[in-house]
């Protein structure tokens, strides 16, 4: 049996199945990227709920795995060379899992980099901008009298949806016929923007054609449906 005792995080979140990939996460747009990928890939894993509402990402145990204090993070007991590998940052984890399995990432070198390009687009633009809309429209920022920050992030989010709309013209998925980690990286964020954040109207989502159809296709996938609810949120 694999020994993960050298990882301090396992003291707070013990591994019941240390031979399986360990996922430390919460069901947020960033967190579900990894759970969806794991479900799509069919890899054996064990999910641990890291309650961000209770600031569990700032505990010494979690910080030992990710010093940036953000979910998700993983430990793969069977990493490169058969040695355990600890990894954080959802984009890096998606790329690692895709390369580990040879799935969800095109084999053609040019298409591979094109896919990675769109994952980086999500990490650098979609996530930060949509998250700011959530803060200024739904959470504490909505109380600010100055609405210029909200308008800035609303306008930029609407523009980014337009980039996706153009990319998806004539395509089923971001990379055409092939469903990849690029799609997985964005599905949860677009869903959250118009759902949990309630920003559907202010970003004029219903004026789009390709993005809503892509989102519907993605959310209909059984692995996506499962992954969106992993790990289970505290009752």
From TrEMBL:
Domain of life: Bacteria
GO MF term set: oxidoreductase activity
Xref: Gene3D superfamilies: 1.20.1050.10, Glutaredoxin
Record keywords: Oxidoreductase
Top enzyme class: oxidoreductase
Coiled coil feature spans: none
Signal sequence, start to end: none
The EC number(s) this enzyme carries: 1.8.4.-
Domain GST C-terminal span(s) in chain numbering: 108-235
PANTHER family reported for this sequence: DISULFIDE-BOND OXIDOREDUCTASE YFCG (PTHR44051:SF19), GLUTATHIONE S-TRANSFERASE-RELATED (PTHR44051)
Stated name of the protein: GST-like protein
């Amino acid at each position: 049996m694999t020994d993960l005792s050298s990882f301090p995080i396992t003291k707070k979140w013990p591994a019941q199945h240390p031979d399986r990939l360990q996922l430390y996460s919460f069901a947020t747009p960033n967190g579900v990227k990894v759970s969806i990928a794991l479900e799509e890939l069919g890899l054996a894993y064990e999910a641990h709920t890291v309650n961000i509402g209770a600031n569990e990402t700032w505990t010494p145990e979690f910080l030992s795995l990710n010093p940036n204090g953000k979910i998700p993070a993983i430990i793969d007991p069977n990493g490169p060379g058969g040695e355990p590998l600890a990894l954080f940052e959802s984009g890096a984890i998606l790329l690692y899992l895709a390369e580990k399995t040879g799935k969800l990432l095109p084999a053609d070198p040019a298409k591979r980099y094109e896919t990675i390009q769109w994952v980086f687009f999500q990490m650098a633009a979609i996530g930060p901008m949509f998250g700011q809309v959530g803060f200024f429209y739904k959470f504490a920022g909505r109380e600010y009298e100055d609405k210029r920050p909200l308008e800035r992030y609303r306008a930029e989010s609407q523009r980014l949806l337009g980039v996706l709309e153009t990319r998806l013209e004539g395509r089923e998925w971001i990379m055409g016929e092939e469903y990849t980690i690029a799609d997985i990286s964005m599905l949860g964020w677009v869903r959250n923007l118009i759902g949990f954040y309630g920003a559907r109207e202010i970003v004029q989502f219903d004026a789009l054609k390709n993005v809503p159809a892509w989102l519907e296709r993605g959310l209909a996938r059984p692995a996506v449906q499962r992954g969106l609810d992993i790990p289970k949120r505290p009752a």
